[in-house]
Amino acid sequence: AKAANEGTPEFKLIQLLKTGEEKTREEMGKIWGSQDGLQIAINKGMQSKWIVCTKTTIKRIAEEVKDETASKLKTMLANKVPGDYDKKMLQDLKKRQLLSIKKIKFYKVTKGPNFQPKRQAEIADLTAEMLAKKTWEGVKFKKLNPLAKGKELSTGNFHPLFQLRDQFRSILLELGFEEMPTDFYVDSSFWNFDALFIPQQHPARDMQDTFFLSEPELCNSLNPDLKDNVKKAHEGNCYGSIGYRYNWEPEEARKNIMRTHTTPCSARMLLALSKDCLLYTSPSPRDLSTSRMPSSA
């Protein structure tokens, strides 16, 4: 504001000299009053081609001088928006300390569509009491947000027996055991009973102890590698055993059931390992199972 009203330092300097007049720097220093700002005034005066200088003298060469910088500062006092002016000019004035730029943040508050002179709380739930007394008519309800998270519910914890089962499973896996595939819960009676030398008239195969499937009722076929050997073992006179001495029925062995234990999985694994042992000499793997039973015998 001072430079805008009184003029810039170079304009003040040129006012101390008449056109063509020359004075020493020492004389100008005494007239100026101090050295503060004098050198800046000299530099800007030379840049504007108002004066010429030597090491000891200052001479005015301009006849008419107009302080355009002061005029710009006056304009800026009327319009204080930096974006309306050239950036290079603003940087130059700021460097000369004739201008300072400050950021001013302000907020404009206006009435919105939901403006009310008195605050009214929004109701989240429509209660039976509000319906009975009809107080809901003058109430403002919150908008329903179907994406909002509901109340977190306690989902409980693992049963202690399941925790113990997982601990045993981890220990056995660390000892080098491999987990058998037990994810098939429907099996044939052949694998569930017959291959394990359980006779076809055993009480565990009754309807009250085993869940039989009605669709599909029978499996497609029996294992051809074991069928004849299982038949011989049940009927007797095989492997040094007298067996159960009855006529073993393949149709009974083909009935599908809900697997009652995991031993059929072990029997399948033993068959697979026996075939591998005929082809390879590497040690047989150790297998484990922690499967849940779909039904129990």
Name a few traits of the molecule.
297 residues, elongated, 12 helices, three-stranded antiparallel sheet, 7% strand, 7 strands, mainly alpha
Secondary structure elements and their pairing?
Blueprint: H1 2-6, H2 9-15, E1 22-24, H3 25-32, H4 38-47, E2 51-53, E3 57-60, H5 68-78, H6 87-95, H7 128-133, H8 160-174, E4 178-179, E5 186-188, H9 189-192, H10 227-235, H11 250-253, E6 256-258, H12 263-279, E7 287-288
Parallel strand pairs: 4-7
Antiparallel strand pairs: 1-3, 2-3, 5-6
Helix pairs in contact: 2-4
Overview of the structural elements:
The structure is a single chain. The chain is mostly helical and about 300 residues long. The chain contains 12 helices and 7 strands. A 3-stranded antiparallel sheet has the order 1-3-2. Strands 4-7 form a two-stranded parallel ribbon. A hairpin with a 3-residue loop joins strand 2 (about 50-55) and strand 3 (about 55-60). Helix 2 packs across helix 4 (about 40-45). The longest helix has 17 residues, at about 265-280. The chain starts with a helix and ends in a 9-residue tail after the last strand.
